[in-house]
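Figure 6 in text form: structure in, sequence out.
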């Protein structure tokens, strides 16, 4: 897992060319005015989901096997639970088409606050619990760039 500000994204370009392209897409688009929806960046290798929603009290953890997530907060803030995938048990089997498995964290919880202008990067070993209320319910706008491994 990586947490940083968008202005430091170039620090991570060397991890993969696809990750670099995902960060560049975030930097080169006016995300505040971009409507919610799916945006193809490079076929199914790299795509973005822009989402607006209300944070919530609880949510399952999730894990991915084919894609790295870049979760960038456009507006608002949310709390995100984070743990190693090996600390979890499956509550909903892996869906290969959607590249998602829903999980229960069997270890102690660790949280990060994702604030406007910052991002979290989740790799397959990182189970995460997004969209939680930081203190109270908030309406947020976030982009999740899915980057093929």
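Output sequence:
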């Amino acid at each position: 897992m990586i947490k940083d500000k968008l202005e430091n994204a170039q620090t991570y370009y060397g991890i993969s060319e696809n990750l670099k392209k995902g960060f560049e897409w975030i930097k080169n688009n006016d995300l505040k005015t971009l409507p919610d929806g799916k945006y193809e960046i490079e076929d199914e290798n790299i795509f973005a989901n822009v989402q607006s929603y209300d944070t919530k009290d609880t949510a399952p953890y999730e894990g991915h096997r084919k894609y790295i997530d870049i979760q960038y907060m456009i507006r608002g803030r949310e709390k995100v639970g984070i743990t190693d995938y090996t600390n979890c048990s499956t509550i909903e089997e892996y869906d290969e088409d959607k590249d998602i498995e829903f999980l229960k964290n069997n270890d102690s919880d660790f949280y990060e606050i994702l604030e406007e202008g910052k991002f979290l990067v989740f790799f397959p070993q990182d189970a995460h619990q997004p969209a939680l209320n930081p203190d109270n319910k908030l309406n947020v706008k976030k982009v999740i760039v899915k980057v093929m491994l």
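Caption detail: The helical segments are 17-27.
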